Amino acid sequence: MDTLSYWLLLVVVGLIAGVINTLAGGGSNLTLPALMVLGMPPEVANATNRVGVALQCLVGSLGFKRHNQLPVEEIRPILWPTISGGLLGSIIASYAPSSWLKPMLLGTMLTMAIVMLIRPSVIAPPPGTPARTMQQTPSAWWVLFLAGIYGGFVQAGVGFILIAALAGSLRYDLVRANALKLVCSLTFTLVALVVFVVRGQVDWVPGLILGLGTMTGAHLAVKMAIKAPASVLKWFLFVMTLCGCAAALWL
């Protein structure tokens, strides 16, 4: 495969991953293997992938804000645990063996799939359910902190943990949970990028080309999220969870 074909592959994969990550999670199950096809070591692919993720989260967050679906006043208390967890997770990822990634990813996916089958209302609250504050739900702080550690360590599947905290613990509907999820992902991804850049593990050209695709995917996904019924978003999330399980077993 020539260089142009590699770049086209990254743009297409990035576009699909941008849609998946914005509406659910697990898009890095596509982008990480695509980067490794370029011959990148796992730690470099893990670091380079964050460029596309950061750009996708920025575009998605701004898109939800334009449609008044991003509860801006709730961002600050949610960010503290995700930022601190992201810093810790990225430092671990910079030094830890890649063999740690698969068990964490598979465990996350399987837990989400089981919860959604047995008690779907935990992840997708019924319409009209009032959201809770961080003060009302102290346990959400620890869930978000763990999500930050996981997201700093490896991006793949972190969206599912964030949705579990934002929709499951804080009871946001799936549209607003996805909007806040993107803000959280953006913050700990930027923290992780700083660590990886200092360690010299980011390959910028493939990362930015991937980002072109993820930004386009995020832009399209925001429009889909605003228009789609809650039941459609719930089933999309469930299907992506199962796909994440399959990817974790296969990778």
From TrEMBL:
It is found in: Cell membrane. This is Probable membrane transporter protein. One of its GO terms (cellular component) is plasma membrane. The keyword Transmembrane helix applies. PANTHER family: MEMBRANE TRANSPORTER PROTEIN YFCA-RELATED (PTHR30269:SF0), TRANSMEMBRANE PROTEIN YFCA (PTHR30269). It is a multi-pass membrane protein. It comes from Proteobacteria bacterium 228. The chain crosses the membrane at residues 7-26, 78-96, 103-122, 142-167, 179-198, 204-225, 232-250. Keywords: Cell membrane, Membrane, Transmembrane, Transmembrane helix, Transport. It comes from the Bacteria. Belongs to the 4-toluene sulfonate uptake permease (TSUP) (TC 2.A.102) family.
